[in-house]
Design brief:
By secondary structure, this protein is α/β, with parallel strands linked by helices. The protein folds into two domains: about 5-95, Hypothetical Protein Aq_1857, Chain: A (Sandwich); about 105-190, GMP Synthetase, Chain A, domain 3, CATH 3.30.300. The protein is built from four helices and ten strands, in the order βαββββαββαββαβ. A hairpin with a 2-residue loop joins β2 and β3 (about 40-45). The longest helix is centred in the middle third of the chain and has 18 residues, at about 120-135. The chain is elongated, with a radius of gyration of 18 Å. The two termini are about 25 Å apart.
Length: about 210
């Protein structure tokens, strides 16, 4: 469900060491809302035994992690990692899931209703998952296929790619090339990301 990188685990355990009865505390995580086209999070330390029946609890090599029941679907497949953006080390959530947003592409053109069941759409999803996202995830970014219709793939970028000055280059020279080389049925890639609001995709842990 939620992966914690070795680096992030070390950071969390180090922060936890300053708490009373540290070894008994779990890292709790909950989606607190959304901002700039991405989820925002609360993270704090609390006894794992306080988890309710719907909360997700698991062990991650010396660290118990609890995800609130209401947030399980929003963080499914996400990775808690470490970022050094701005020269400072902090935790970052690399999450392929994004909050619902108005369905409008750049320039106000409507995005087709999402139907990703076609063979072409499935090929695009495979390229994004296997080739594209592992590369841009190293820069805390992510790309999702929103829709595919009439030869056009509608792609939304999130995390470190949202609002990044190099996002256009990443799309045209990276994502688009990878998709069109592997899936010639794709004639055009349209970026539907709200880059204007992507000012700070990184999240520091917040303790309750």
């Amino acid at each position: 469900m939620l992966r914690v990188s070795d680096e992030a685990r070390a950071v969390v355990i180090d922060i936890r060491s300053g708490e009373e009865n540290a070894a008994a505390l779990a890292l709790w995580l909950e989606v607190s809302g959304s901002a700039n086209g991405a989820f925002t999070y609360d993270m704090w330390f609390q006894q794992a035994s306080d988890a309710g029946p719907g909360d997700a609890v698991w062990e991650s090599e010396g660290l118990s992690v609890v995800v609130a029941a209401s947030s399980i679907d929003q963080v499914r497949g996400a990775t808690l990692d470490v970022s050094t953006a701005g020269g400072e080390q902090g935790l970052v959530m690399i999450n392929p899931n994004v909050p619902p947003s108005p369905r409008a592409a750049a320039g106000g053109a409507p995005i087709p209703e999402a139907d990703l069941s076609s063979p072409t759409a499935q090929k695009i999803l495979e390229i994004l998952e296997q080739d594209v996202n592992p590369q841009i995830a190293m820069h805390a970014g992510w790309a999702d296929l929103v829709a595919f219709e009439n030869g056009t793939a509608y792609v939304r970028m999130s995390g470190g790619c949202q609002g990044c000055g190099l996002a256009k280059v990443t799309l045209s020279q990276g994502i688009a090339v990878a998709i069109q080389d592997a899936v010639p049925e794709v004639l055009e890639i349209v970026d539907v990301t709200d880059h204007a609001s992507g000012s700070n995709p990184y999240y520091e842990p917040a303790k309750k």
